[in-house]
Design a protein that fits this description.
single chain; two-stranded antiparallel sheet; globular
Length: 114
């Protein structure tokens, strides 16, 4: 079994529980951490497959309860989680693309300064 094949098998049932999703079994998404001018960046073809797909913001209510402790997902101080910003702190609108970035253009920025 390939490195990420188990994730694909695990996610097979998720499309039954979600009403707004993308399922693509024929294409291969590539993801690579590369260095450009000595700085870490992501190289991916993910956005070729997402297209115009949008979904709503993920929050504590969306996530529901964790399986084993049967507790809500929340911050360490007990506040609700609201994923309304991307990795770089860019604000997400009510409708957004899935993943850590607000757009393909943002995804090619340097991840952190060395």
């Amino acid at each position: 079994m390939g490195k990420w094949e188990c994730l694909s098998k695990w996610s097979k049932g998720l499309e039954k529980k979600e009403s707004n999703n993308i399922v693509n079994d024929k294409d291969k998404v590539e993801f690579e951490l590369v260095e450009t001018d000595g700085q870490p960046e992501i190289k991916t073809n993910l956005y070729d497959f997402i297209g115009n797909f949008k979904n709503k913001i993920i929050n504590t209510d969306t996530l529901g309860k964790a399986f084993e402790p049967e507790q809500r997902f929340e911050t360490p101080d007990g506040d609700d989680i609201d994923f309304n910003e991307d990795y770089f702190g860019n604000h997400r609108g009510v409708s957004t693309i899935p993943g850590p970035f607000t757009s393909e253009e943002v995804s090619v920025k340097t991840l952190w300064e060395k």
